[in-house]
Amino acid sequence: MTDRENNENNDGLTDFGFESIPRADKKQRVRGVFDSVAERYDLMNDLMSAGVHRLWKRIAIARSGLRPGNVALDIAAGSGDLSAGFARQVGPSGRVFVTDINARMLAVGRDRLTDAGIVGTVEYLRADAEQLPFRSRSFDCVSIGFGLRNVTDKAAALSSMRRVLKPGGKVLVLEFSHPHLGPLEPLYDFYSLTILPKLGELVLEDGDSYRYLAESIRKHPDQEALKALMVEQGFERCEYLNLSGGIVALHTGYRI
Fold first, then answer.
1. Torsion angle of C-alpha atoms 47, 53, 54, 56, degrees rounded to 10
2. What are 155-180's pLDDT values in tens digits?
3. Which of 22, 50, 74, 185 has the most Cβ atoms closer than 10 angstroms to its Cβ?
4. Where exactly are the structural domains of the chain?
């Protein structure tokens, strides 16, 4: 556990972007952000990543290891990009459980997948990543895409994800991370911390949500720290793949 996480536990505070708030308040504050952006979630992702999030998600789907007949769980599924890819991989004999803690986001994902003709193999459930309401050893693959940094207790979420994995099952954590861009890093910082909130204000009249999302990236554990946290929670063969110079990292691990 990192020093910052120990401090959060000791003083009862956690981060909400660059702001320190009571741990008990974070879920409600995060829910407010996603209530605000739910209907424009894909536009939000396009603004934050210049559209490259679609490629990052395709890479995650390709590395899931899912086969026809498998059962997958997509946590913090958002508008359902990962869920859709998993559904195609597991086929009509498999199953994908699509979950989100935010009811509006879950509805957006359900509508989007239904419009794409993905029905029958998917089930939707409002669920908290820290306390997943599934039996142990239920899933061949568990994923969380761009959601872990919004979780109050990341260790609890990872532990819950491991619990519901079958032996041999794989976890995928796709998340904004700490880039290694050399001389371009100041430009990335300026874009994400200054330009992105202004775009949110101009395009969507919601600069505060984008400011939080940009700040939350800075507070998220870096690649090695997240890998260590996964190991602490019992995952094995943990590794990560930096994407776009580490702007995003795909962490993987297994329950053996």
1. 170
2. 999 999 999 999 999 999 999 999 99
3. 74
4. 3-180+211-254
